[in-house]
Write a structure and sequence with these properties.
Strand order of the largest sheet: 3-2-1-4-5-6-9
CATH class: Alpha Beta
Shape: globular
Structural class: alpha/beta
Order of helices and strands: EHEHEHEHEHEEHEHEH
Distance between the termini: 44 Å
Number of strands: 9
Number of helices: 8
Largest sheet: 7 strands, parallel
CATH superfamily: NAD(P)-binding Rossmann-like Domain
Helix content: 40-55%
CATH topology: Rossmann fold
CATH architecture: 3-Layer(aba) Sandwich
Length: 254
C-alpha cells in the first residue's frame, strides 16, 4: 500500500460501484480513510468490505445523496468516526434520458435533487467542517462531458452538470480564504458496470471517440486523484474533461 494520502479522510457519495468505487478503492490503497455512500445500502456495504479486504480503511453507508439530511449525517458520521474530513467527493448522480417535450416535473426534480442539491450540500457541510478544523481541504464534483456539448435526450442531465461546474467556479470565492480548493472532473463515455449493460456501448463510443475507445474507470480515477492531491494545490475552480477528445468533435451516438 502506498501512502500518498496518509492522514487524509475522504467522504465520497455514489461509490458502491463504477467510477465512485474506483476512486474510493484507490484512495484507500494510497492510505486514506474512506467513508463511502451509495443509494443502495447493500452495494455500499459490499464495496466497503471489498476495500477492507484489500487492506484499506473504509466504512460504507446507504442513503439518498439527494437528501440534504443524509448528506449532513454522512459528513457528521465521517468526522465522528475518523476525527476529521479533508476530502469530499460528490460523485453521486443519476442519468435520466427523456424527450424534452414529455419530461415531467417529477423527473426533473429527481435529477436536480441528486446531481445539484446533493453536490451543493455535500460541499456546504464538508467545507463547514474543514473550516472548523482550521485545516486545508478539497472538494471535487463529478460533472460530465455533456455539460459542455449537447446530447440528445439529456437536456435535464446536461443542465445539472453544467451547473455543478459553475458551482465549483463560484465556490472559489467562498472557500479560498480557508485554504479549500474545489474542482470538477467531467468524464465522457466510460466503461462501467452500468454502461456495459448496453452491448453496443463499447463499440459505438470507440467509433465516436477520436482516441478510438471509451474511457476506462481508471482514466477517471487518475484525474480525480490528481485534483484531490497536493499536486493540484494551486488549482481551484476548474473543470477537467476526460473524454478522449469527444467534445472537440462531438459526433452523436444517435
Amino acid at each position: 500500500m502506498q501512502n500518498e494520502f496518509k492522514d487524509q479522510v475522504v467522504l465520497i457519495t455514489g461509490a458502491g460501484q463504477g467510477i465512485g468505487f474506483g476512486i474510493a478503492m484507490e484512495l484507500a490503497h494510497q492510505g486514506a480513510k474512506v467513508m463511502l455512500n451509495d443509494a443502495n445500502e447493500k452495494l455500499a456495504e459490499n464495496a466497503a468490505k471489498e476495500i477492507q479486504k484489500a487492506g484499506g480503511i473504509c466504512q460504507g453507508y446507504g442513503g439518498d445523496a439527494g437528501d440534504p439530511g443524509v448528506i449532513k449525517f454522512l459528513v457528521n458520521e465521517t468526522v465522528a468516526r475518523f476525527n476529521k474530513i479533508t476530502i469530499a467527493i460528490a460523485n453521486a448522480g443519476i442519468t435520466l434520458f427523456g424527450d424534452f417535450f414529455s419530461f415531467t416535473p417529477e423527473q426533473l426534480q429527481r435529477v436536480m435533487n441528486v446531481n445539484m442539491s446533493g453536490s451543493f450540500f455535500l460541499a456546504q457541510h464538508a467545507a463547514a467542517k474543514m473550516k472548523e478544523q482550521n485545516e486545508k481541504g478539497t472538494i471535487l464534483f463529478m460533472s460530465s462531458a455533456t455539460g459542455h456539448q449537447a446530447h440528445r435526450n439529456l437536456a435535464a442531465y446536461s443542465m445539472t452538470k453544467a451547473a455543478i461546474e459553475m458551482l465549483a467556479k463560484n465556490l472559489v470565492i467562498e472557500l479560498s480564504p480557508y485554504g479549500i480548493t474545489v474542482n470538477a472532473v467531467a468524464p465522457g463515455a466510460t466503461l462501467t458496470e452500468r454502461t456495459l449493460n448496453d452491448t453496443k456501448y463499447k463499440n459505438t463510443w470507440a467509433k465516436l471517440t477520436p482516441l478510438g475507445k471509451a474511457a476506462e474507470v481508471k482514466d477517471i480515477v487518475n484525474a480525480a486523484l490528481f485534483l484531490v492531491s497536493p499536486l493540484s494545490r494551486h488549482i481551484t475552480g476548474q473543470s477537467l474533461i476526460i473524454d478522449g477528445g469527444w467534445t472537440s468533435v462531438s459526433p452523436s451516438p444517435f
